[in-house]
Design brief:
Nonspecific Lipid-transfer Protein, Chain A, five-stranded mixed beta sheet, alpha+beta
């Protein structure tokens, strides 16, 4: 089952892109640490240690800047040139997270842009390919469940 393609309106993305990146990066890294703490082993992340990574959601104007340390993911200020930058639309990142699209097909169709250290990009891709997200996380990622996230301060405690 595929979801309809969604794009954030350009004016909204332009407005969001002017906001500071550290608060969203902080939230993003906390969510990553919560979701992946039991799925990743520290040795799998060793090649990423100390590397500056940027995830850019092009249509939403959001950028998450982070690195990997001994205690997991941690936010960093926006770097002029991260070691690895991965850019796609919110919809394409959703498709990747829910395994409805393969990163290679998105890359070769130019919907996923990877810049910087190519070897680091491959390590990140292979690490993420090996992850199995818990089913409740995948259900919460569904666009039809977004209204529940907006209503509750603790969406993880709500059912689908």
């Amino acid at each position: 089952m595929t979801t309809p393609n969604f794009r954030f309106p350009r004016p909204l993305g332009a407005a969001i892109s002017r906001l500071p990146t550290l608060p969203p990066s902080f939230v993003f890294t906390r969510v990553l640490n919560l979701l992946l703490q039991r799925s990743l082993y520290q040795q799998e992340l060793l090649p990423l240690h100390g590397k500056r990574i940027a995830i850019c959601i092009s249509d939403a104007g959001l950028q998450f800047h982070f690195t990997v340390g001994d205690k997991g993911f941690r936010p960093v200020p926006r770097a002029s040139q991260p070691d690895l930058a991965i850019t796609a639309t919110a919809h394409d990142f959703y498709l990747l997270a829910t395994r409805q699209e393969d990163p290679d097909s998105l890359f070769f169709s130019r919907r996923l842009l990877v810049e910087g250290d190519t070897e680091l990009g491959l390590v990140a891709k292979n690490t993420l390919d090996g992850l199995e997200l818990p089913k409740p996380v995948l259900v919460m990622l569904s666009p039809k469940n977004l209204p529940a996230w907006a209503k509750s301060p603790w969406p993880a405690n709500r059912g689908p």
